[in-house]
# Entry
Amino acid sequence: MERRRFLARAATVAAAPALLASTPPAPGALIDTNVSLGEWPTRRSWAGTPAQLASRLRQHGVTAAWAGTFDAVLHTDVAGINAQLSAACAREGDGRFFLPFGTINPLLPDWEDDLRRCHEVLHLPGLRLYPNYHGYSLDDRRFATLLAGAARRGLFVQISLSMEDDRSQNPVFTASPVNAAPLLDLLPKVPGARVMLLNCSSRVLGPGNPLLAKLAKAGVWFETATLEGVAGISSLLDKLPDLRLAFGSHAPYYYFEAALLKLQESPLTPAQLAAVRHGHARAALASA
Amino acid sequence: MKRRDFLATGALAATLPWHARAAQPSPAGEVAASAWGSAELRQLGAWDAHAHVGTPGATPAKRMEYLVRIADRVGVERMCIFMSPPWQYEPTPEQFRKSNDDVLAVLKEWSSRAFGFVYLNPTHTRASLDELERCVADGPMVGIKLWVGCHCNRPELDPIVKRAAELDAIILQHTWIKQRGKGNLPQESTPMELAELSARHPGVPLICGHTGGGDWSLGIRAIRSRSEIHADLGGGDPVYGEVEMAVRELGAARVLYGSDVHGRSFASQLGRVLGANLTVAEKRLILRDNLVRLLRPALKRKGITV
# Structure
């Protein structure tokens, strides 16, 4: 792609979050807050290209998708990965369907410049972090520094607590789930920080889980990809009505239809359904 | 809604195509239509091979009432139910009898929607055989559930398998492979052990619960050569590839939809079948027809027509 054309498309993408936040949602709007481009190293994918992923999501009514890239988990050329992700998202359709979420590894040299580029060069709406694969925990001071930097730049931060069931990982490619509890101490110390936890699983996303209630009170967002249980969404909202729970699929690692049917399985009020489908996601980016 | 009204509604609903009950002119209804893809599948009425009635409710029947209400939303018509909570890894005879009593109580009111499987612990062989008589030979149950009380390749299972075959009762054995087997519970079975059991009982149909769980690619390999073993897909994350591999390696006729509710959702487990790159005919087998075929001999014994 010519540089000028790329920059023009990137500008469109950069404008997308604000646009999404300010435009009234279509009645059937559906925002998937948890998709990834590429292939997970140990699995085949049903979406070999971003276009295939977008096609399947659109077929099921998704109107926008927040995209990271599986490459971000293992690659150390973070700036390159983020630029590729941004370009790939810009190439799809009119450049507004995928919202790119770049990654930062605060253990790498000069990660601060990666963060600067995400904001100033690529104009990304947010970051997606993989602490367990990048080698730090959430009580690491370097993470605190990163979170503060993201907050200063108005970047929304997604933290992936897991990528796959740790019971079934390939023995040479393992990562324990991230412990989210340190966020309870950290978030009050970082004004402006906005955080969504991805792939929480039942370790966090259980209706009776005290950690979930505390994180919710701290203003953390969550998504549905690994939410399980009978009528899981409504069961959770019955206990925590104010929970910021957005729709997420973890596609293409998971079958997208698994996430979609969760919306059907739970008896939700129209307001609850709208909040999960698009309301919380829009509010998350609008509050920048 | 009064209970009688609900039951009447439920009975009526059970006679309708599920999409006529669940689909609404709303985003939720659009979800149902989109996820199921074809009208044929939307009207199918799935049979779920793996369900636990641990949903909210003061009594077992009330818990089932809630489960049915949610099942109706996603097109699940019938469920094989077993192991009423609380669960014990290695239950005593008293404990598994109590669990089965709860399932019997459910069946009294919900036999139109549920099939009961008797929960046994083969470590207590004599008591398990007696319970098999009480609940299956002399009772309404049609299958057997074995969990993590005893490795399934142990000889204690042999008399249970023989009697099950005489009664046409299908056995569903839980299997999982955690950290390549190193993380399993002390008495937790693997698909490899189920294949050993099957080799001692050729021709006896068995269901491999979870098919090894997250490490399903090993589980599918382990049961591949035993044509009597069917793969229950339920209970793991809806990771892409499992369903396609199971159909490729075992054939669609050996693959079963199971949800493992209440711990899992119906949605995530249905979604993996509906989202798989398979024909409608293959999905139909997995979602319903294979389980109908496996249960038919036992149902016939009970005079149940489907």
Observations:
- Residues 3-22+29-286 of chain A form a domain with the TIM Barrel fold (CATH 3.20.20.140).
- Chain A is about 40% helix and 15% strand.
- Chain A touches chain B at residues 27-28, 30, 43-46, 59-61, 164-165, 167-169, 171, 226-232, 252-268, 270, 273-274, 277 (CB under 8 Å).
